[in-house]
Amino acid sequence: MEILIISGLSGGGKSKTASFLEDMGFYIVDNMPAAMILKFAEFCAAGSSRYQRVALVYDVRTASSFTELFDVLDTLKTMDGQCRMLFLEASPETIIKRYKETRRRHPLSDGAMSLEAAVEKERELLAPVRERADFVIDTSKTSTAQLRMELLRIFEGKDEKGGLSVTVASFGFKYGLPLEADLVFDVRFMPNPFYIDELRHQTGLDDAVRDYVFSFPQTGSFMKRLEDLLALTLPLYAEEGKTGLFIGVGCTGGHHRSVAVAHALTEFIRTQGYSVQETHRDMSRES
After folding, report:
1. What is the pTM of this model?
2. CATH code at position 90
3. Which terminus of the chain, N or C, has less C-beta within 10 A?
């Protein structure tokens, strides 16, 4: 079992971090008091696989005593599994700007305390927690995509490529475009194996059809340009934090040309280090 305590300054990015960790498979519990963490950990240890990765958000609003939190951390580290703490922070100027933009009230702010004073007070209060953290992320100049990439690196051992999953799907235009497609490439300009009697009832996954489709110079030129385009854009999609990219490759019926090209494109994307799956929506339809 893996337990992660998420703490840090209000406005430092705990909520956004929790959302990303949830996408990574963590079960998220917000604002859990330290006194309840051990009991919850015992419950998770005895529970289903749903609770094998747990992230607990802990901030100044739930703190009755940091000594209690530290005792809990020490106990958790002796249990089976892994327990770590992540601390999110940002510069006072950044936090003040974020609170002004959202018009929310700082949890330590009361009628007599300014926002600037509340931010500074919380920083002083949480200094011992920061010292105990296994990881500290300063989000002052970190974009949403960069934060996600850093979390992937720390908790999944992945770079930005590991955060992008690509699907390549062949389809037939006469059956409509895939609704989920991000990019669509039309290969109906290629010579059609449908008009070759011995190839008509085969598919683009058969060697004879693939050899026919890729025997023409326009196919090779097209694939070279398509591979160059994806070599440029896939890292940019990943850098911007995109988690899934659906690429559609279409021909008339979705049996021959689109299948052969989609298969070749899948192999190329895999060599670039991305997680990729290949599907053929209309290949099994009768012509």
Report:
1. 0.64
2. 3.40.50.300
3. C
